[in-house]
């Protein structure tokens, strides 16, 4: 289906809301479990992170294959440019953010398991039974730093993105948000 200023493809809408909502929940849970050291949530966070990683790659491929849809209304060139930059940050960030988490976990020796299915093994520390040891400490550290940095980049991009969507809907009264909600304008 060709995307127009009136209508978005169902795949665009489904991928947007599935990746977007998973991503927002992962941000909130990640923040909470880190601050409060709730280790029981880590396996769930990693499992959903791995799922978002795969879906975000599919989404990027979909967007690259289809190109961006034409704007829903005739808004200023600077606004269109800013929206496009923010959308690219979100598209790439939804891949790099979980990827950095997965690398951090794997190289930190804690392995990767998706709902109990092991994709990358743990690295037990023979000197400390029950504990793991890093496979590559420097790489795990870099991935951790990237995960921390991307948190703020993504929060900033998301704030701009949601503010833009609300501005279109409430102030401009155009169909940008309605189109993403599956309505034909
Ligand atoms: C309450 C949350 C959100 C709202 C209200 C919202 C709203 C929208 C709207 C209205 C569009 C269409 C823009 C246009 O037609 O030019 C859009 C596109 C987009 N949104 Fe969101 N969004 C939300 C959350 C997210 C999240 C969490 C992400 C990713 C982390 C995201 C990533 C994108 C991307 C990459 C696009 C570009 C179009 C595409 O590739 O599907 N959005 N969003």
Name some characteristics of this structure.
185 residues; mainly alpha; Fumarate Reductase Cytochrome B subunit; two-stranded antiparallel sheet; 5 helices; 66% helix; 4% strand; elongated; binds protoporphyrin IX containing FE
- The mean pLDDT is 95
The tally of beta strands, per DSSP, is: 2
Major sheet strand order: 1-2
| Low-pLDDT runs | none
Number of alpha- plus pi-helical segments: 5
Structural class assignment? mainly alpha
Largest sheet: 2 strands, antiparallel
The CATH architecture category equals Up-down Bundle
Global shape: elongated
Order of helices and strands: HHHEEHH
Distance between the termini: 16 Å
Radius of gyration: 19 Å
Report strand %.
Answer: under 5%
Hetero ligands: protoporphyrin IX containing FE
Q: Would you give the CATH topology? A: Fumarate Reductase Cytochrome B subunit
Overall number of domains: 1
User: For the record, what CATH class applies?
Assistant: Mainly Alpha
* Helix percent band: 55-70%
Brief summary:
The chain has 185 residues and is mainly alpha-helical.
What does it look like?
- By secondary structure, the chain is mainly alpha-helical.
- The protein has one domain: Up-down Bundle (Fumarate Reductase Cytochrome B subunit).
- It is 66% helix and 4% strand.
- The chain has 5 helices and 2 strands; from the N terminus they run H-H-H-E-E-H-H.
- A two-stranded antiparallel ribbon has the order 1-2.
- Strand 1 and strand 2 form a beta hairpin.
- The longest helix has 36 residues.
- It binds protoporphyrin IX containing FE.
- Protoporphyrin IX containing FE binds next to helix 1, helix 3, helix 4 and helix 5.
- Belongs to the cytochrome b561 family.
- It is found in: Cell membrane.
- It is a multi-pass membrane protein.
- This is Cytochrome b561.
- GO terms for molecular function: electron transfer activity; heme binding; metal ion binding.
């Amino acid at each position: 289906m060709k995307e127009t200023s009136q209508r978005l493809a169902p795949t665009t809408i489904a991928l947007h809301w599935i990746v977007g909502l998973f991503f927002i929940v992962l941000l909130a849970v990640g923040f909470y479990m880190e601050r409060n050291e709730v280790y029981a949530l880590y396996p769930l966070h990693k499992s959903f992170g791995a799922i978002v990683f795969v879906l975000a790659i599919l989404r990027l491929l979909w967007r690259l294959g289809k190109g961006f849809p034409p704007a829903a209304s005739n808004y200023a060139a600077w606004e269109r440019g800013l929206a496009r930059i923010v959308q690219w940050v979100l598209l790439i960030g939804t891949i790099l953010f979980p990827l950095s988490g997965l690398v951090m976990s794997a190289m930190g020796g804690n392995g990767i398991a998706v709902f109990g299915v092991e994709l990358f093994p743990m690295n037990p520390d023979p000197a400390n039974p029950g504990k793991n040891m890093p496979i590559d400490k420097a790489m795990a550290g870099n991935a951790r730093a990237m995960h921390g940095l991307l948190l703020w980049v993504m929060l900033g991009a998301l704030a701009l993105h949601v503010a833009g969507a609300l501005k279109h809907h409430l102030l401009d009264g155009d169909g940008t948000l309605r189109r993403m909600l599956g309505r034909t304008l």
